[in-house]
Amino acid sequence: MKKVLFSGASVIRMEEKKCFTEKLDLLTNGDYIEKLAPTGKIKSSEYDEEINCKDFFISPGLIDAHNHLGLEPGDEYAQMQEKDAMIALRAAKNAGVDLLSGVTSMRTLGEKNYIDLEYKRAFAEGMLLGPKITVSGPALVATGGVGWYMHQEVDGTEEIRKAVRQRLKAGVDTIKVMVTGGISDRDTDPTRCYFSQEELNVLVDEAHEAGKPTSAHIYGGVGCYRAIEAGIDAIEHGFLFTDDMLEKMAEKMITLVITPSILSSNPSEGPEWRRLRLAAIQKRYLQVLHKAKELKITMAIGSDCNHSPYFFNNLLCELKNYGMKPEDILISATLNGAKVSGLGDTGQIVPGKKADLIVLKANPLEKIEALREVALVVKEGKVISRRA
Ligand SMILES: [Zn+2]
Question: How far is the CA of 109 from the centre of ligand 1 (A)?
Fold first, then answer.
C-alpha cells in the first residue's frame, strides 16, 4: 500500500463538542490514516510520497448528511418522470461536483427505484467519481404523501412491514419515512402527520430488529411526537418545530439533520401557496436553529437536492449568519454527519479512520469561509483534486 506523508500542516482535531488545531505530520497508508506525529518526526523511509502542507490546514472531509443526488431544485415531479437512466446520469454528474468541492461522504435519503444502491456501488468501485455514500432506497410515504412519485406508497402496518423488509433485502443503510407533507408539493400539508402511531412503531421496530437506523422527514405538527414515541433515530428538516418538540428531541438524544438552504431561498419566487409556506418556514427556522443549539441537540447538515460547485461549503459558511460558531458548524458537517450516516470509520482525523481529508488554505475555526478554498480533496487516501 502506498504511504503518503502530509507534512507540516495544522491538523484540525475534534472531540465531541470541541475542535482545535495541532501542528502535525499525517501519514496515510492506502485508504486509512496510519499515524499522526509532531512535525519532522516521521522518517523518510516510512513513506513513498510527501505532500508539503506547510501553511495549510487539514480538516476531515465534509459529510453532507441529507441529499438526493438524482434531484435538483425545480419541478421534482417532472424530473421523476424521466427515465431512470437520465436520473442516474444526473446523480453521477452531481456526485462528481460535490466530491470535488470537498464532500467526501454523503447520506442520500430517497431515490427512485433504488438508483442510489447502484450509484453507491459505482462510486465505491471507482467506476465513477463520487463521495462515499449511504442510502435509504425510496422512502416510505403514505398514499398521496410528499414525493409519492419517487418513493413507495404504503398504508397500514403490514404494507409498512413488507416495505421495510424489501429495503433490508435490497441492502439499504437506513430506513427513511416521509411523516409529514413538504414544501415541494402543493397537495401535501407540511404539518399533517400521514402515519398513525402504530404504523410508525412497526416501521422503527422492524428496522431496529435488523440493526438499521431510521430517519423521518418532518416539518412540524404531531408527527414529531409520534416519531419520537416510535423511537426514530434522526429527524430531517424540523422547519416548524416548537420549543417543546425540540426539548423532547434533546431528551431522547435524537439527531436533527438541518437543511438550511431553505433560509436563503428567494421568498418572492414561485406560486403563492409556496411563497406562504416558505415565509412561515423562514420565520420559524431561525428560532428552531437557535433553540436546538441552546438545547445542545446533535445536529448534522444536508444540502438536500442542491448541487453546484461549493454548494455545501457555502451553506456551511451561511450558518455563521444564523448564530452557529465555526467549530459547531465543522463538527456538524464532519463528526456528527458521520455518526448519523452510520459511517463510524470517517469524519475525524484519528489513526485507523479513513483518510478522507480536505486541505485548506486558511483555518476554518477562525474564519469559516476558509471552507471555500479547498486546495486538496483526499478520499480514502487518494488525491481527487489539487488546486494548490
Ligand atoms: Zn430530502
Answer: 6
How close is the Cα of 68 to the center of ligand 1, in Å?
6
Task: Name the residue with cell 480514502.
Answer: 380
What is the structure's pLDDT at 74? 87
150 shares its domain with 30: no
Compute, in angstroms, the gap from residue 84 CA to the centroid of ligand 1: 19
* pTM of the complete model: 0.97
Domain extent for 290: 62-309
How far apart are the CA of 111 and the centre of ligand 1, in A? 10
Would 8 be classed as within a structural domain? yes
Q: Are residues 185 and 230 in the same domain?
A: yes
Residue 184 pLDDT? 81
Q: What does each C-alpha distance from 141 to 51, 195, 221 come to in angstroms?
A: 48, 9, 17
State pLDDT tens for residues 80-119.
999 999 999 999 999 999 999 999 999 999 999 999 999 9
Question: Around ion ligand 1, which residues have CB less than 5 A away?
Answer: 304
The sheet with strand 234-237 has its strands ordered as 152-153, 140-141, 175-178, 214-218, 234-237, 255-258, 299-301
Regarding whether 364 and 287 lie in a shared domain, the answer is no
Percent with pLDDT over 90 in the chain: 92
Indicate if 139 and 150 belong to the same structural domain.
Answer: yes
